[in-house]
Amino acid sequence: MELGDAWGRVATDLRVSLTDRCNLRCSYCMPAEGLAWLPGEEVLTDDEVVRLVDIATRLLGVRAVRFTGGEPLVRRGLVPIIAATSALDQRPEIAMTTNGLGLARTAPALAAAGLDRINVSLDTIRPDTFATITRRDRIADVLEGLRAAQHAGITPIKVNAVLLRGINDDQAPELLAWAMAEGHQLRFIEQMPLDAQHAWHREAMITADETLTLLEKEHVLTPITEGRGAAPAEEFLVDGGPATVGIIASVTRPFCGACNRVRLTADGQVRNCLFARTESDLRTPLRDGATDQELAALWVQAVLPKLPGHGIDDPAFLQPARPMSAIGG
After folding, report:
1. Rounded mean pLDDT of 58-65?
2. DSSP alpha helix (H) spans, the chain
3. With contact defined as beta carbons under 8 Å apart, do 158 and 119 qualify?
4. Which of 14, 21, 53, 138 fits a 20 to 30 Å CA distance from 329?
5. How many domains does the chain have?
6. Among the residues of 185-316, which ranges form H helices?
7. Which domain holds residue 7?
8. pLDDT, tens only, 125-147
9. Least confident of 36-50, 161-175, 217-231, 272-286
10. What percent of the residues of the chain are helix, what percent strand, and what percent coil, each to the nearest 5?
């Protein structure tokens, strides 16, 4: 079996949300007071997560697994989950997306458990701007976490940044200079309509073209035209290389036609697209005693009706009811 859809795409990259909780309150993601978190009994247990990942890799052809949230570092079982995933018969490439808080103390254990790659979300290196965006004065902890990850050998580190109009859109070249000096791979991501407040509107978004214009004021960027495959980022050599910068233009230059991703939420729901408005329940049959083959068949049926694109430009587009923090990136 494989996780194919009616448009010929096959999902081989699984994004697993381990929690909807987060210890930051980024303004483009959730309100200052936070959200109503999932009740503990609805969240998959560590063993349930590993079993579903095993089914995905052993029976359904998944080759890469990325653990996300919310913030995965707040999940107490994170290290054991990664260790168990690393020990699977069909071991996938194991990655994680994090805000970096707590990474300083956990990086050695994560590396030992088998974590291969890490993406850290960081929109600015200015303490005041960081506090404005995240509503927390914690940038020193994030930078310490980045250093710990490097020291533990989880490299190269990718840094994901979102530019916000009037807040940090003047800092793109500064971020790139910092990332190159630190040896990190920087990727700018267009802000997507996945905030809990449903306040996103296209006119306020910094587009990929705007980001490139900002960077080209100080650098010569040369597109890398080969080898992108299903990767979401368009890569550019910076001043001839070897450093690169990536642009993920999810809104203005969607890459849905090459998408190879499927998502599993913290409460055991399959989402065949980040912007899907429907989900397929695996948690209930899993807890009711379904076999691995039965769960795999349900997963196949969940992916089959995936739409050809996210439809953001369609006048009838409706933002998903769940925000990014609950869906998992």
Report:
1. 98
2. 46-59, 78-86, 103-113, 127-134, 139-152, 172-182, 208-215, 283-287, 292-303, 324-327
3. yes
4. 138
5. 1
6. 208-215, 283-287, 292-303
7. 3-327
8. 999 999 999 999 999 999 999 99
9. 217-231
10. 35, 20, 50
Query: Scanning the structure block, which residue is given the tokens 């009811």?
Result: 321
Six-digit token pair at 218?
A: 């100080």
The length of the chain, given as a count of residues: 329
- Look up residue 67 and give its amino acid: F
Question: The tokens of 187 are what?
Answer: 């990727």
Two tokens, residue 207:
């587009």
32, two tokens: 């200052």
Residues contacting residue 290 through CB under 8 Å, at least 6 positions apart: 298
Closest CA to 205 of 248, 256, 238: 248
Residue 127, domain CATH = 3.20.20.70
Question: Encoding tokens for residue 140?
Answer: 């020193």
Cis amide linkage into residue 114, ω under 30° from 0: no
> Residue 146: CB partners within 8 Å, gap ≥ 6?
100, 103, 120, 122, 157, 159, 182, 184
